[in-house]
Amino acid sequence: MSGPGGARIFLDANATTRPSDAVLAAMDAAARGHWANPSSPHRSGQAARALLERSRRRVADFVGLPRESIVFTSGATEADDLALRGAIAARPGRRALLVDPTAHAAVLETAADLAAEGLEVRWLPLDSTGRIDAVAGAAMIAEGREELALVTLSWAQNETGILQPVAELAAAADAAGVPLHADAAQAVGRVTVDLDAVPAHLVTFAGHKMHGPRGVGVLAIRPGTLVVPRLLGGGQERGRRGGTENLPAIAGLAVACDEAEARRAAGTPARLAALRDRLQRGLVDACPGAVVLGAAAPRLANTLAIALPPAASDALLLVLSERGIDASAGSACSSGAIEPSPAAIATLAAMGEDPDLAASALRFSLPAETGEREIDAALEATIAAWRLGAS
Predict the structure, then answer these.
(1) How far is CA 126 from CA 145, 292, 349, in A?
(2) Distance CA 368, CA 22 (A)
(3) Residue 235 sits in the same domain as residue 279
(4) Last residue of a domain, one of 227, 245, 263
(5) Which CATH number goes with the domain that contains 351?
(6) 63 has a pLDDT exceeding 70
């Protein structure tokens, strides 16, 4: 089984997406025509600098902050590291960190490392939908205002697609004088991330989650928020991140931002939500015992996380792959190993479901080009895989 024209069906967009043709063209033009160092004072360098700053402005406009707020990094993982460690280092008198328990590993592992260095890690509570409890979280922020160096949470959870109450918690943090970091790697390009309206202090994302290039990430810093740099060197990015900028990737990212805005205006999220719901209904109807993670919470339009007991995730994914369907069981990692994720376990527990169901969970995340034929083929293949695994 395969997709239209014999191609594989890719339903793992939360791991990465295919760069668009316009993104690739912008990257090629920058690599060929603006290969000089943007920090050089000669004309070639200044032409590269002009492209860098035009791209920075396009990215800044996309998230609703001034151009000077945008710091380009090598990806979202580096941006998360700079946000967490940089913000905490800027507040040495505060020794507590408030963390989303369903955050991406880039945040959770950094938090664990900081805890080993003596920082106190506190956890935001989840409600019965698997979402952060906004009221209880705001109370924790207010109560900890003297100790907290930072609050960190996902804008959209990468496995379940649950949209976290960023606006409410950012307002609470702002009122308490505590900086808040939102990992928006899955949210940017899929929902509106307007930092003119949401007072988050630090927001991170990457190009390759929204049909842009790999190798470029963003830390957006609200004016007045202090961050100590992690990479020192030539003073690039206004002294906040040393290293010569990856201009081709940055130029591609700027185009990806424009295209994401156009897709939202054209109604792509609503179309993907209808396709996601079609797949969800089909699996719930055909697979007794299926549990949708975060079903009662607001979710990304493109994301379905569903446990299909008694089949195991690895067995399901193997059959799907053989049938031409690319899906996942959660976050992509370097080893390709499939183990129940802490985020899935925490979400199921908060929902009152058996956390062991995480061992049978799949994630389908739809790229922008997904259509009905791909969803119907994925539904057929998944039901067949589940029947094999349940027999």
Answers:
(1) 20, 17, 9
(2) 15
(3) no
(4) 263
(5) 3.90.1150.10
(6) yes
Q: In the chain, which residue ranges form alpha helices assigned H by DSSP?
A: 21-33, 43-63, 76-89, 105-116, 134-143, 166-176, 247-265, 268-286, 313-322, 342-350, 372-390
Which residue range(s) make up the domain with 367? 4-19+267-390
| Choice among 115, 136, 232, 333 that is catalytic | 333
Domain boundary among 231, 263, 295: 263
What CATH code is carried by the domain that includes residue 47? 3.40.640.10
Among residues 248, 241, 160, 247, the alpha carbon closest in space to that of 204 is found at: 241
Tell whether 254 and 155 lie within a shared domain: yes
Does one domain contain both 240 and 313?
no
Which DSSP string corresponds to 282-348? HHHHHSTT-EETTTTS-B-TTEEEEE-TTS-HHHHHHHHHHTTEE-BSSS--TT------HHHHHHH
Considering only CA atoms, which of 240, 167, 244, 174 is closest in space to residue 198? 167
Say what the pTM is: 0.94
Tell me, yes or no, if 257 is annotated catalytic: no
pLDDT digits (tens, 9 = 90+) for 203-225: 999 999 999 999 999 999 999 99
